Amino acid sequence: MVQFHEHIIGDLLEDPTDAGGLVVLSSGLGVHKIIAALLHLHHPSQGTLLILSASPSQKHSILTSLNPNPNPNPNNNETTNSPSEITSDLQAHHRLSLYSSGNAFFITSRILIVDLLTRRLPTSAVAGIVLLNAHSLSETCTEAFIVRILRSSNRNLYVRAFSDKPHAMVAGFAKAERTLKCLFLRKLYLWPRFQVYVSEDLERDPPEVVDIRVPMSAYMVGIQKAVIEVMDACLKEMRKTNKVDVEDLTVENGLFKSFDEIVRRQLDPIWHTLGKKTKQLVSDLKTLRKLLDYLVRYDAVTYLKYLDSLRASESFRSVWIFAESSYKIFEYAKKRVYHFGMSKSENLTSPAMKSVKSKKRKLDDSNKDQEDSLVKDANSRVVLEEALEEAPKWKVLREILEEIEEEREKQAISSDDCVVESATDDNGIVLVACKDEHSCVQLEEYITGGPNKVMRGEWEKYLLSKVQLHALPKRNKKKPQTTKGFGVLDGAAPLTPGKGVEGSSLITQEHEALLAAATQISKQAQKGIEIVQDDPQSHEVGKGKGKGSSRGRNKNSSKNNGRKLEIKESESSSKNDGKKVEVNSANEHTTAGTSVLKKHVEGADVEQPRNEKRIPPVHFYAYESGQQVLDILKPSAIIVYHPDIAFVREIEVYKAENPSKKVKVYFLFYEDSTEVQKFEASIRRENGAFESLIRQKSMMMLPADQVAHGLVRNSASETDSPSKQNTVTRKAGGQKEADKEMQVIVDMREFMSSLPNVLHQKGMQILPVTLEVGDYILSPMICVERKSIQDLFSSFASGRLYHQVEMMVRYYRMPVLLIEFSQDKSFSFQSTNEISDDVTPHNIISKLSLLVLHFPRLRIVWSRSLHATAEIFASLKTNQDEPDEAKATRVGVPSEEGVVEDDVRTENYNTSAIEFLRRLPGVTDSNYRAIMDGCSSLAEVALLPVEKLAELMGGQKSAKILRDFLDAKLEFTATLTVMAP
Question: Where does the ERCC4 domain lie (predicted)?
Fold first, then answer.
C-alpha cells in the first residue's frame, strides 16, 4: 500500500457515525488495494461484510492483494480471512449459516435481494456493504433496493462505495448527488491524480521514463488523415440536425467510446422523429472511431480484412462510405498489403513503398515457381505485387528488447557484486503491455519468428478467406446501380461492379488475381495438411525439427521470398538447435484458466537476416484481461506498447510501493497520431471530471440525517396508494380502517430488472417465488407478463411469447401483456412516416394484431416507464383480493402424484380436448367455458339435444350450428358427366 491509500481508509473510518461514504478516485490508483485493506481490518465479531457489484477481474485482484503468495501455506492464518463467494448453487440453510458467520463474502445483488425479501438473511447480522463500480448505480438499481431494505431495519449499517471512473460520475444531471441519495450517504471523497497526497507519493521516486515517438508510414498517415476528414464531414451533417449539443460534436470527443453514449443520450427521447440519415450517422461515427483505433493497433493485412468486411456489410446503407475522402482509406489500406497495376508501368512501387520489402509471385494455374517473378494475367497486362508493410512499432520493439539485454550484460560485466546484491530484487522480466490478446499473440510470434513470418501468415489467411468467400453461393446479377451522397458527403459509389462502370474491368482483374493466388495457396495448404495438423508438442527441438503450426504458415518464409509456399517438416528451421523457445501461460501466477500473459525465454529471432542478438525474458499482458500483474511479476522494465492512462497509474503505484527497485518504462507512441491525441485527451477529460465533481460537492444539498430522511420519504409515498385514497369514510363514523399492505408475487427472474425496486418504493410487499406462468401475479385473477421493447421483439421472433400468452389465458381470467418502454427513450415503436398501410408478417404492429385476434381475452397495457408501471399495478390491484403465494407457485407445474382436486396443475386440463372444442362451429370464447362446466367430455357434448346446447351456449342459433355439424352425414353424392367421343 501507498501512503495515500492509508489516508483514504482513514477518511472512511474516522466518521463517528460510521455510515460510510462514496470514494471516487482516478483510474489505476489501486481501488482493489483499498478494499483488500478494509477486508483485512474487518473482524468477524463486527458482523458479516458483503461485497457487491464486483467483476471477476476485480475479485481476482482483491484476492491477490489479500494473499499475494500463489502457493499459500496451509498453516498460515491469513489465508482464512480471504472472502469466499456465495452463489445460487448453495442451499438456503447453508447460505443462512454463512450470513451469520461474520466473515466477508462476494455475492450478487440478485441472490442477496431474494434472501432479504424472503427473510433468509438476518439484517442485524450484517455489519456493512462494500459496493464497487458505483458509477453504474441508479435510483432504481437492485443495489439501491438492497441498501434501502437493510437501512430500514439496521441503522448501524455502513455502506462504502467506490468508483474509479470519474468521467462516468459526471454523466447526466447531478449524477454524484443522486448516487449518494440512493445509497443514503452524505460524504463524497474525491482523490484525483493531482491531489496533494497522491502526487507527493507518486512523484517522490518516479520510474525512469523513455518516450519514443515512432513515425507512421506514409500510407498510415494518409489513412488517418482521410478518416479524420470523413469523421469531420459526418459531424458537420450531425450539426445540421440542431438536435444535439454542438459542443459535444468534436473529433476529440469522437475518439472515446463515451461519445456514442453522449449522442444517444441526447437523441433517444426523440429517436422516433429522426430520419434514416441521422440514425445512420450515429452508427457511422462509431465505425470511424474503430477505424482510427485499429489503424495503430493491428497489422496491415488485418486492417484490410476489416475494411473488406465493412464494405461488404455496410456499403448499401452507410453514409461515410460516400464521403469525398473515403476512397483513400480503402486505397491506402490496399497498398499497404499489395499493389496492382499494369506490368509495363515504371511506377508500380510508390516512394512510400521503397522501404518495404516486396514480393512478386507468379499467379497462374500451373505449378511452376519462379523467384522474384511478376504476377501476370493471361495477356501479360497486369501485375500483383505483394507489399506486406510491417508495423513501424515492431522494429522499434525489437530494438528496445535488444538494448535492454545489452545494458544488462554491460552491468553484469562491470559490477558483478551489484548483480549478486540485486539478484533477489531484479528478476530481469520485461513486461510488454498491449490493449488486447490478439496483439499479444502477434507480437510474440513476431519476436520468435520475425516480421516476414507473421505477415506471410496473415496474408495467407487473408487469401484463404477470399477462396471461402468465393465458394459461397452467388446471388443473381443485376444491372449496376449507383448511390449518391448528400451535403458535404457528396459522392457516388457503384453498388456492384459490372459492365459500363469505369474501371470495373481492372477491379475484376484484380479480384481474379487475388483468387488465383488464394487458390494456389489453398492447394499447397491441402498438400501439407498432414504436417500442419501435427501436434506441436511431438517435435523435439534438440533433433533439429521445428514446431508444427495449426495455421498452415510457411516454416521458412523469411528466406523464401518469391518461392512457392511449401510446408515441409524436413525443411523447418534448424537454427533452433541449442536454443530454447518457450510459450508459457500466465497460469503460473494467476488463477487457472486465465490466459493473460505469454512468455518466451531467450527467444532469439531464429530467422532474422540481420545479426542475431539476445533478448531478455518477455511477458505479454493484455489490458482487456483486467488482471493486476505488476505485483505478481515485479518487472524491472515495462514497454507500454499501447498507451493507457489506467495502466500508467498502475505503474506509478507499483514504483511507489517498491521505491528501492529500479523500473524503466518505455512508451511507444505513433508520432502525430490520434493515439497521442487520445491519450492526452483522456488526461484532460479526467481532470475536467474531477473539477466538475469538486464544484458539485461544494453545492450539494444533502439532509443532515440522510438515512432517516430517505426512509421517511419512502414511507410517505406509501400513504398515497390508490387503495388508501379510496377508503370510504362513511363506515363506522369515519373511523379509519386498518391499512393492508399490497402484495405482488414476482418471479425470481424478474429481479434482473428494476421494477421490483420501484414497486417496493410504492409500498407494495414483494414476494419472490419461481413462477411457471407469468412474471407478476397481482391477484388470483390477474397475471402479468412483462416485456421490454428488446425482449418483445426477440420473443416474437422465437415464438416464446405465443406460448407464454397461451399459458396465461389457460390459467387466469385476466391475462395482461405489459409492454414497458424506457423512460429516456421514445414512447413508440416506430415513427409516423415508417408506418405503412400494408400488413406484413415482419411488422411488429402486425404481429401484435395477430396475437390479440388469436387471444381475445388478452389485455395489452402500455407503460412509459418503471414508475408508470408501478402506478398501473396499484390501479389494477384496487378492490382486488391479494394473490395466494402457494397457489401461484403450483400454476402450470406438473405433479408427480397425479390430479389434485381444486388445484390448477397441468394434469387437470385436457388441453387437446379444449382446443378441439373451441374449434367446433358455433363455439366461441364466450361460451366454451359454459360448455366445459355442463359437460364432462366431448362425447357428452355430441349427445346433448339442441335445447340443452342452447341453454349452455347462450343462444338457439349457435346451438343449431353445432348440432347440424355433429349430425351431418359423412357420405356425399358425386355426379359424373360423360362426354361423347
Answer: 743-823
Rounded Cα gap, residues 332 and 226, in angstroms: 10
pLDDT, tens digit (0-9, with 9 covering 90-100), for 178-189: 899 888 888 899
pLDDT: is 21 or 538 the higher one?
Answer: 21
| Number of Cβ within a 10 Å radius of residue 763 | 21
Name which of 355-369, 395-409, 846-860 the model is least confident about. Answer: 355-369
Average pLDDT over residues 721-730: 49
Please tell me whether residue 909 adopts helix, strand or coil conformation. coil
Angle at which helices 674-699 and 276-297 cross, to 10°:
120
Q: Is 214 helix (H, G, I), strand (E, B) or coil?
A: strand
Instruction: Tell me: pLDDT of 422 over 80.
Output: no
The DSSP letter of residue 819 is: E
Look at residue 786 in the predicted model and tell me its pLDDT.
93
Nearest-5° Cα angle at 408, 405 to 409: 85
The dihedral through the CA atoms of 960, 962, 965, 967 has a sign that is negative
- The contacts of residue 843 (CB under 8 Å, 6+ apart) are 836
pLDDT for the residue 818: 93
Alpha carbon of residue 718 to chain centroid: 38
By CB neighbour count within 10 A (0-12 exposed, 13-18 middle, 19+ buried), where does 750 fall?
A: middle
**Residue 661: which region, alpha, beta or left (left: phi > 0; alpha: psi -120 to 50)?**
beta
Rg of the Cα trace of the chain?
35
3-state SS class at 906: helix
pTM of the entire structure?
A: 0.73
Closest CA to 822 of 860, 867, 777, 871: 867
| Distance (Å) of CA 53 to CA 57, 135, 149, 339 | 12, 11, 17, 52
- In whole angstroms, what is the distance from residue 104 CA to residue 728 CA? 51
Mean pLDDT along residues 698-709: 70
CA distance 608 to 373: 23
Averaged pLDDT for residues 482-490: 51
pLDDT confidence band for 729 (50 / 70 / 90): low
Please, are residues 194 and 170 in contact by the beta-carbon 8 Å criterion? no
What are 741's three cell numbers? 399492505
Please determine, for residue 414, whether its predicted confidence score (pLDDT) is greater than 60: yes
Compare 274 and 184 and report the one with higher pLDDT. 184
What are the CB-based long-range contacts (under 8 Å, 24+) for 356-361?
Answer: 356/217, 356/387, 356/388, 356/389, 356/390, 357/388, 357/390, 357/452, 357/561, 358/385, 358/386, 358/387, 358/388, 359/385, 359/386, 359/388, 359/561, 359/562, 360/385, 360/386, 360/562, 361/386, 361/517, 361/562
| The residue type at 954 | G
Report the alpha-carbon distance of residue 866 to residue 359 in Å, rounded: 63
511 or 367, which is more confident?
511
Q: Distances from the Cα of 516 to the Cαs of 99, 305, 364, in angstroms?
A: 68, 18, 7
Q: How far apart are CA 121 and CA 94, in angstroms?
A: 11
Contact between residue 361 and residue 517 where contact means Cβ atoms under 8 Å apart: yes
Q: Quick one: pLDDT band at residue 359, thresholds 50, 70, 90?
A: very low
Q: What is the rounded distance in angstroms from the CA atom of residue 337 to the CA atom of residue 517? A: 14
Pairing of strands 618-622, 597-600: antiparallel
Cα angle 503, 507, 508 (rounded to 5 degrees) comes to 115
- pLDDT of residue 70 exceeding 70, the answer is no
First to last CA, the chain: 109
Helices and strands of the chain, counted as H and E runs: 35, 25
Burial of 569 (0-12, 13-18, 19+ CB in 10 A): middle
* 116 vs 836, more confident: 116
